[in-house]
Amino acid sequence: MTHTSRTVRAALDALFDPRSVAVVGASGNPEKWGYWLAAGALEGRDRRTVHLVNRRGGELHGVRFVPGLDGLPDPPDHVVIVVPPQQVRPLVVQGLAAGARCFTVITSGGTSAAEERELAALITGGGARLLGPNCMGVVDTTSGLRLSWGDFPAGSVGLVSQSGNLALEIGRLLARAGQGFSRFVSLGNQRDIDAADALDALIAHAPTRVVAAYIEDFRDGRRLARTLTAAHTAGKPVLLLTVGASEASDRAAASHTGALVSARATVEAVCREAGALLLDTAGELVDTAICLLAAPVGALGLWTGGHVEASGGATGGHTSDGPSRPWALRVAVVGDSGGQGALAADALVARGFDVPGLSAGTAGAVAAFLPSGAACGNPVDLAGAGEADLHNYSRIARALLFGGGTDAVVLTGYFGDYATANPAQADRECEVANELACAARESGRLLVVHTMARDTPALAVLRAHSVPVYERIEQAATALAGAARLHATVAAAPDASPRRASYGVPDGGYETVRELLASYGLTFPAAEFVTTADEAVEAAYRTGYPLALKAMGLAHKTEAGGVALGIADEGGLRTAFARMRSTTGAARYAVEAMASPPYAVELIAGVRRDPAFGPVAMVGIGGVNAELLADTAVALAPLTPERARDLLLSLRHSALLTGWRGAPPVHLDAAAAALCTVARAGAEHTELSELEVNPLLVHPGGAIALDAHGVLR
After folding, report:
1. Which residues, in sequence order, are CB contacts of 650 under 8 Å at separation 6+?
2. pLDDT, position 320
3. φ, ψ for residue 93 (rounded to 5)?
4. Among residues 391, 469, 504, 667, which one has the fewest Cβ atoms lying within 10 Å of its Cβ?
5. Which sign does the torsion angle of CA 683, 686, 687, 688 carry?
6. Distance (Å, rounded) from C-alpha 68 to C-alpha 70?
7. Sign of the Cα pseudo-torsion (295, 296, 300, 306, in order)
8. Regarding the domain delimited by 1-134, which CATH topology (the fold level of the hierarchy) does it fall under?
9. So what's the pLDDT on residue 301?
10. Residue 633: beta bridge partners?
11. Confidence of residue 252 (pLDDT cuts 50, 70, 90)
């Protein structure tokens, strides 16, 4: 455990397991928040002292309300406040004077953000911590603490959320699957305790086996990234939900980089590097959590052992046709019908799994329980064997689990529903469910059940034994894929915060940015900058023909008619200059030697400064079609050469870099070094919100930048 984790845990003991709780604004009216907070607090009074505070008096469950915090017989360790905003500050002053170490403020902490920040400063200055304000509260089912509205089933999932209703939805979905929460933290406005604090506390909490989070405002994104990495290192899988839009991603981008590096892409990159899993819905989060909680230790070892294929940049790329899959999990499928088995196999293969043929020994073991002549491939078609004898489900599943040729077994079809049509079969079906669970546990492999049944006794048995059960095959396949991908991830070491350059550039024009990047070691063609046609002709004698003429001061030169390539002589140069001046009105121009090495590939490399995560590096297939292709990969900047190389190889069109249709491969080390240079310059020059090189020409002999652009913050 890190020093940071120990410190956070000590500081937040009063949040999750206080010695005493005071609920200010307690009520006996079930229609009020004060009722639910007070009733929840009283559920834990066998573990801690509970004070209910209401200046008007009253009582709940035999406990009389006291008028204020100043007259309590012992210090309130944790004070929960649910009163109008204008009353919050005086109560905090009372609580601090009484010795409170933690405040949870359900209502707003003031009429403005400034007042809420002042409230947080008051609390932290007094040596206490603040959750909220404007939050839904906190629950710790392991310590009997329930300080929130709603039902929170007990289980092994810790949730940090900026949405209260989403937490309730996740709780209901977990309950239906036989699981629940170890802890729940509603972040509210995060004026003190933020997502990273709460996640750190869950990492250190032994009963929390899976960490889930819904975060809209990442605050200090670099710190959060380090927390996610720490969770992965500690063996605590993190499942994250977030929103995809932000002010930064919605604004009109001043460069290709700004358009291609969205807030969502940045979070995806952070999750990949930190070993967390970014999901889209509450249902996916719960389905994946159930799969993770069910997987035996041996099964997880298989996923990250000999059958996982580490594939270089596959962990780093963002592609439009699905997630990267640096793993190869082999799955056996057994179904009640050929159709269900085939569809299950298709769903698994579509998500990156291998559904291999069975070995001769396993096929023979399975055939012993099937009707004569039934096929013994993978998927296995029961062909009525389950209906003939329910125990064949467990016999065949056991044969597959112990066969040695696969890492997981998916049972798809009707099992679990026999007792619905024939209640006399309920006991036998439950026996078989126990046998299935035992086979999975003893084999050390994962058994996943997809069934058309819902909430039957047999399914309750499976869930009680941590066998994941899904109502739709796509749920089962997606959850299994997420769990496999998560456990195959090797988290990158968290980057230190980039240092700041000792000087700032005055503008983002090509001449300035070219000089900046050249000082970092990036190669450009020979060029001179001029203002007249005569100066251009003189410069051309020194750079040589053919050459390129570029108008300065334009973000997108090609679209504006500000680029002319392959100019062969003085006449062509003067003609191009006159046309370009008429079209663009530019006052300054670059006369630049043409660079056209054979077998070159155009890339785009850039850095965008994210409001939460800071500088984010991007590389993609570049040129004028960069935004059309949108084949990019991103990572937090600065980069190591190894990380830059991984990003390049993760592109959908990376075959262009490694040798396509007989072409020689480009110089990947030079390409990675150029990307590192751009990332470092963009990270260190904080005066730039965006920095871009497009195109970056990479070829078998090296890399050369042909254009560059920056945007001042």
Report:
1. 312, 313, 314, 315, 316, 317, 318, 319, 324, 633
2. 34
3. -60, -45
4. 504
5. positive
6. 6
7. negative
8. Rossmann fold (3.40.50)
9. 42
10. 619
11. very low
Which among 138, 82, 71 is positioned nearest to 109, based on CA atoms?
82
What residues are paired with 590 via a beta bridge? 529, 550
Q: Answer whether 135-245 and 601-712 agree in fold.
A: no
Residue 537 burial (C-beta neighbours within 10 Å; 0-12, 13-18, 19+): middle
Place of tokens 């605050």: 219
The tens digit of pLDDT for each residue in 502-552 reads 788 999 999 999 999 999 999 999 999 999 999 999 999 999 999 999 999
Q: Give 705's strand partners.
A: 696
Residues in the chain: 713
Q: For residues 391 and 393, what is the distance between their CA atoms, to the nearest angstrom?
A: 5
Residue 226 in tokens = 């380090």
Report how far residue 472's alpha carbon sits from residue 553's, in angstroms, rounded to the nearest whole number: 56
Task: Tell the CATH superfamily of the 295-488 domain.
Answer: Succinyl-CoA synthetase domains (3.40.50.261)
Q: How many CB atoms lie within 10 A of CB 355?
A: 20
Give the right CATH number for 601-712 from 3.30.470.20, 2.10.220.10, 3.40.50.1240, 1.10.260.40.
3.30.470.20
Q: How far apart are CA 672 and CA 522, in angstroms?
A: 11
- Terminus-to-terminus CA distance in the chain, angstroms? 39
Report whether 328 contacts 307 (CB < 8 A). Answer: yes
CA distances from 331 to 48, 378, 442, 444 (A): 49, 9, 18, 14
Range 135-245 has CATH code 3.40.50.261: yes
Domain edges within the chain: 1-134, 135-245, 295-488, 526-593, 601-712
CA distance linking residue 257 with residue 266, whole number of Å: 12
Strands of the sheet containing 446-451, edge to edge, are 380-381, 331-335, 408-413, 446-451, 469-470
Fold of 526-593: Dna Ligase; domain 1 (3.30.1490)
- Look at residues 329, 407, 409, 330 and name the one whose alpha carbon lies nearest to residue 366: 409
CB 652 within 8 A of CB 632: no
Cα 114 from chain centre: 31
pTM for the structure as a whole: 0.86
The Cα 14–Cα 580 span in angstroms is 69
**CA-to-CA distance for 509 and 236, rounded, in angstroms?**
46
The structure tokens 């090797």 sit at 490
Q: Which two tokens stand for residue 131?
A: 């959750």
Identity at 35, one-letter amino acid code? Y
- Alpha carbon distance 8, 192 (integer Å): 12
**Is residue 330 scored above 90 in pLDDT?**
yes
Neighbours of 712 (CB within 10 A): 14
Query: Do 709 and 255 form a contact (C-beta atoms < 8 A)?
Result: yes
Helix (H, G, I), strand (E, B) or coil at 460: helix
480-to-92, 288, 336 alpha-carbon distances in Å: 47, 7, 21
Both tokens of residue 219? 């605050």
Sequence-distant (6+) residues with CB within 8 A of 143 are 16, 17, 44, 47
**Among all chains, which residue has been given the structure tokens 């996640």?**
199
CA Rg value for the chain: 31
The one-letter amino acid code at 50 reads: V
Contact 130, 124 (CB under 8 A): yes
